[in-house]
Amino acid sequence: MKLLILLLIFLAVLYLVATIAVWYFQEKFIFLPEKLSRTFEFKFKHPYKELFITTKDAVLNALYFQHPSSKGIIFYLHGNAGSMRTWAEISDIFLSRGYSFFIFDYRGYGKSTGKISKKDIYRDSSLMYEYASRLEPEKKMIIYGRSLGSGFAAKLSIRKRPEKLILETPYYSMQEMARLQMPFFPIKLILRYKIPTYKWLPKIQCPILIIHGTEDELIPYEQAFKLKQFLKKTDCFVTIKKGMHGNISTYSMYHNSLDEFLTNETT
């Protein structure tokens, strides 16, 4: 009996330590940045302008691909891993459709300095959006959020009111995602990044397009499908059958849906 009590105490202490570790190191679980030296040279198919925007406590690195006859700017918020070194390759998709493309690395990603936090991500996204909108002041702005960036994109769209919003492989909330990954921890109590996309969608006035694959191995399709109930009647929800987290753009349905959404002025 004494041995059993000691074992239970040990397991309780172990659980407490693990819970504290998850709370303290959660940024390391959520954000997986690739760091680049300041002298790193990006190489892409299309010409671009590299920008360094200074905030109160960080310097954010951005890339601006300008289309010569731009229909507007795609303001892109990327996923949780890597850097613009790979994420900016998606600019081809939008440049070929007549849109300029603006992307930046979050704090601690690529060449961007500073320490990432929830408040800073929202603040930086707003700052960079304002900067991008001044590059082509007479053109429309379209926000595109991918994976982790989809939640930030939804939040930003409430405040900035872009022409349109596109969410690729979004999640219902970061809290729901954390529960799926770590069901034995008190996620509601310890998670600082709840990012409730579902709460923000009903507040967005612009047209919304959601695209998700049924075989997504990182963010389950059900996460996005639960968001469908919060869309307006004129919004679009596209299911890519067999689509996975990283290959949706290889499907013709993705491109067809994108074309229809971008060209439909009454969507």
From TrEMBL:
Q: Does the keyword Transferase apply?
A: no
Q: Which organism is it from?
A: Sporocytophaga myxococcoides
User: Sorted alphabetically, which SUPFAM superfamilies does this protein's record hold?
Assistant: alpha/beta-Hydrolases
Q: Does the keyword Hydrolase apply?
A: yes
Q: Show the GO MF annotations.
A: hydrolase activity
The chain positions of domain Serine aminopeptidase S33 read 69-178
Pfam families documented for this protein: Hydrolase_4 (PF12146)
Which superkingdom does the taxonomy of this entry point to?
Answer: Bacteria
Signal peptide segment: none
Alphabetic keyword roster: Hydrolase
InterPro entries on file = AB_hydrolase_fold, Hydrolase_4
Identify this protein by name.
Answer: Hydrolase
